[in-house]
Amino acid sequence: MPPKKKARVATRSAKAEKADESETASSGGKRKAAKESSESPDSPQFSHWLMKSEPDSRFENGIDVKFGVEDLKALPDQTGCWDGVRNYQARNFMRQMKEGQSAFFYHSNCKEPGIAGVMKIVKEAYVDHTQFDRKDVHYDAGSKPDNPKWSMVDVQYQRMLKRYLPLSELKKYHLQQRAKGGPLKDMALFTRARLSVQPLTTEEFDFVLSLEDKEPL
């Protein structure tokens, strides 16, 4: 059963997730395999993540999908379920997540996108109940209770970054390091930008975290 009294975290609109899905399928060769298969045993295993959500109000079917890091912080136990992901690759990444791993809370679809805080995975992937709720903006008529398509995890707020790290600054580091080498040269935020759930290497996570103690580039 889904946790009671936990906020819905609408990470992406259905339109955006469909765009992700098409991108994933086109780059993966066989559309069905790219969409429906879980990560293979040989897939890289990650221990850090970046997860996107919208901090500003935006209504879909009369429902406000806003959920920023301050909203997570305000919940009981500062914990919520990360539901509403409707892209197969993003879902598969969530299915790789392990309890205790760290993730950046990334503010998307706002005036200045960027990394706002750090959270922790506190419950590993389980069935996303919103796929069966006809009133929910993430309802999926093609998903059945005996064969659910979509998963979610529970996350817990850890802390705000000492300073907000805007996408524009991260992009400068990415471009520098793509040319000269460095931790962010292949960062998924720029190589798989559409995905709402992205893996990070330990080197990427540590480098980005170190930026909070530095002056803006």
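Second entry:
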Amino acid sequence: MKMTGENSSLSSEITMEDVKNLIKKKDEIEEQIKAYYDVLEDQGVGVEGALVDEEGYPRSDVNLYQIRTARHNISCLQNDHKDIMVEIEEALHKLHAREKTKRQQDETGAQDEAMEQQVTLPPPFARVDAVTQGSPACGAGLRVGDEVIEFGSVNTANFQNLQNIASVVQHSEGKSLRVAVIRDGQKAQMSLTPQRWSGRGLLGCNIVPINR
């Protein structure tokens, strides 16, 4: 008895729930096969035991109809069992293949997004090589290694030397400056307010130019 219907035409949109249902049907078939084997065991003949006596007459000490029915059903159910095991294997293969494809697409999408961002990011003109704890720069979120692409009005296009940044800082004491950096290949933005604090200067960080 070939399994028909939705189980024989496994959809490419197979889900884990579908696999669980197939496994449940497999378990039910195995239970039915076991029940028929129990019938044969009770009759004392098994699957291959003779149903005729030594003289060739049908045995009268067993239920021939029950035995023949059990043997026939075991044969049919074993075929069903083979079919559903193939379906389970195909379903699992499709499920794993789809998960692998989805994983690859997600990874490709993330890589494309990162590459696109890297392509659109301007080259940095300075790098942060020191940040003092408790300073305005530390409070704003600047970190050592950050590569600066924007510091207030100073950007990659108009940067000439560190005096440009120093001038912006001197004229912006107590005012919030927008700072953009490249960190781990990603753009990060923050607000930095130059102001007096317990340490030297108005920022509490050291910025060095990047030679291009």
